Fold these 2 entries.
Entry 1:
Amino acid sequence: MPGRLNLVILGKQGAGKGTQCSRLSERYSIPHVSTGDMLRAAVQADSRIGREVASILDSGELVSDKLVIRLVADRFQQPDARSGALLDGFPRTIAQAEALEDMLGDDGIKLCIDLDVPTELATQRLASRRVCQECGSIYNETDVEAISGTCSKCGGDVIQRADDYPDAIRQRLAAYERDTEPLLNFYNTRGLLVRVNGDQSPDDVTVAIQSVISVRGLA
Ligand code: AMP
């Protein structure tokens, strides 16, 4: 069964969830479970699921609740998720949040962080984001890796994600507002929601999240 420290990180695309989750994952030794990364890996592998979702991912729309719920339920069966998980990009709809509660039972979500950034900043960050296709490292368009197109960590190709182009960015932020913002209320009424200002340096954001985790006695 999934275990102790199950944390949901909410926030618009571009809020810095990925960056914070990899840091927190190391700090608390719990896996970073990103449904976006899992779906992109399926597309890369050209698996059956990958072929089913490829065009949806490119458009910035959401894939079906049923598919992602199954993906996350399977992920929770893996041994490393016994100590908990950092959920990034899931849940994204009320139906997914309810399914997550069913999956976790009594040992449920301990905290939901809302990583808050203004829409203009999120848009800017997404448009200038470049990623390594191999290891997932994130760069800015002005970084040498983005300019050369080669990742300094693994030598993989550094590209602009199809859904980081302007039309898809608009679509994704609209989907966030429509489908995911209601989750703020969902977790707030359960006393689990804490807002953290994402418009500060990555180090300051990490410190702010760690202090919430510690003040709540979660780790
Ligand atoms: P992300 O990297 O989290 O922005 O996710 C990239 C894309 O994957 C999204 O635009 C959706 O198409 C899809 N996706 C990721 N997570 C979910 C989810 N929980 N529910 C539905 N679609 C998702």
Note: The longest strand covers residues 5-10.
Entry 2:
Amino acid sequence: MTDRKSARLIDFHCHLDLYPDHAAAVAQRERERVFTLAVTTTPKAFPRNKELADRTKYVRAALGLHPQLVAERAKELSIWKEYLPSTRYVGEVGLDAGRRFYASFEQQKSVFSEILGACAYAGDKILSVHSVRCAKVVLDMIEARLPVGNNRVVLHWFTGSASEARRAAEMGCYFSINAEMLRNDRSAKIVHSLPKERILTETDGPFTAGGPSGGAPADVRPARDGLANLYNLEHDEMDILINENLRTLLS
Ligand code: MN
């Protein structure tokens, strides 16, 4: 069991390599003992992320190919596949049906399909998945391509409907929640409806403002505090719950 003293802050989706000083951002997370999933947007960024993360106790590097970059970088899927055996963590991957990226949606689906297939074949992967404006398609593809087994999916910044959230939870998905999601009533209500044992925290830094950080990684405490408030728990009770959830996810 996790007790108060061993409970850590957890940022399960953060782009540490997009901060002005990547190495300093990693070092800060290590110093502050914040468990951090450092997601990448292109597989070319993965080796440096892995090199820095491997020297830490609290930072993990995830291998990504961001759906918003697929139009220009679909060719890097071969590099992504080459690195897959070297990591348990995959992200940021998924689909984006927002207006700016819809032109590449078919191409995104084909890349995501290959990613899911490769993860299903390899097994024991943990995926941080983007699903802007297409939660249903993302869930359909996960259901079809990543059969329930020892792979795990964490839906990052989920903005689907209440029924899509319920379906995702029934499929076994986890959800990483950031402070922005809790500032919006509709989305806070959906977060509140999720099974508590499937909740993690994230910042998606530097894409969300985590308060005045001056180049330092975003603060994950606003997400933790917002969740504690939503669930009517003390901050340390919330930390223990999230640490237990992480432990189950990684086990
Ligand atoms: Mn992200």
Note: The chain has a mean pLDDT of 95.
